[in-house]
Write a structure and sequence with these properties.
Keywords: Repressor, Transcription, Transcription regulation. The chain is α/β, with parallel strands linked by helices and about 250 residues long. The chain has helices at about 5-15, 20-30, 35-45, 65-70, 75-85, 100-110, 120-125, 155-160, 185-195, 235-245; strands spanning about 20, 50, 55, 95, 115-120, 135-140, 140-145, 150, 165-170, 175, 180, 200-205, 215-220, 225-230, 250. It folds into two domains: about 5-60, Orthogonal Bundle (Arc Repressor Mutant, subunit A), CATH 1.10.10.10; about 65-250, 3-Layer(aba) Sandwich (Rossmann fold), CATH 3.40.50.1360.
């Protein structure tokens, strides 16, 4: 089989089954695992898959820059946001992550809801400036322009001095095996710091992120209270997550 044919086979396998296991493909095609790994490296370099130990997973479409992400699945994000605001109790405190789905949450918070919002996103803070009942705390630090959030040592230290009832966290990849992932190491560390300061953490993930992975692990499934998604409840990946004991809140 030619290299181009192998690449097409690997991409088709990713689409059909949601993963590539290098040793299985090598056995099936009668080639070495090294050949499969080289093909996967080439595909990953082109942004067509996310390499993981032993093979590859579908790459998340949510790793593009902030402006581009705003055009990805806006209806799904609004549905997720609508379900998420129902978890915010009157008088409660919320740590709200950055990102376009979190921005949809900020815009969906009822104007009459008395709450405290803690965020490391200037964009989220700006969206809540005209909210009449939300007390707002903005965590400072180095601004990561790709996602319009603060991160780094100063931001993590600031996060360690707050606490909240609820954390709503965005990620770029949601996968039963790879867990919850994002595309930047410092951003992943900041998300962990935010989650650690809340009694409950729910993941915001519109359907295009389900079954995909990015390079850096944010949290394992046992560290979160649940997942809010607009994905089909009968989706294979959603069923796998439920089998793992993950609470899935389906946004209709």
């Amino acid at each position: 089989m030619l290299a181009a044919e192998r690449r097409e086979y690997l991409l088709d396998l990713l689409t059909r089954t949601g993963k590539v296991v290098a040793k299985d493909v090598a056995a099936e095609l009668g080639i070495s695992e090294d050949s499969v790994r080289r093909d996967l490296r080439d595909l990953a370099a082109e942004g067509l898959c996310q390499r993981v130990y032993g093979g590859a997973l579908p790459v998340s479409p949510a790793v593009v820059d902030y402006d581009a992400r705003q055009a990805v699945a806006p209806d799904g994000k609004r549905k997720v946001a609508s379900a998420a605001v129902g978890l915010v109790q009157p008088g409660g405190s919320l740590i709200l992550d950055g990102g376009t789905t979190a921005l949809a949450v900020a815009r969906a918070l009822p104007k009459g809801l008395v709450c405290t919002v803690i965020t490391h996103s200037p964009t989220i803070a700006a969206a809540l400036l005209d909210h009449p009942q939300a007390e707002l705390f903005l965590l400072g630090g180095r601004v990561f322009k790709h996602s319009a959030v603060t991160c780094g040592a100063a931001a993590v230290e600031a996060a360690q001095n707050v606490s909240a009832d609820l954390c709503l966290l965005g990620v770029t990849g949601v996968h039963p095996e790879a867990g919850l992932t994002t595309g930047d190491a410092e951003e992943a560390a900041m998300k962990r710091a935010l989650s650690a300061r809340a009694a409950d953490t729910y993941i915001l993930a519109s359907s295009e992120k389900i079954g995909t992975a990015s390079q850096f692990r944010v949290l394992p499934w046992e560290k979160v209270s649940g997942l809010i998604t607009d994905a089909d409840p009968d989706d294979t990946v959603v069923e796998e997550l439920k089998a793992l004991g993950v609470t899935v809140v389906v946004a209709g």
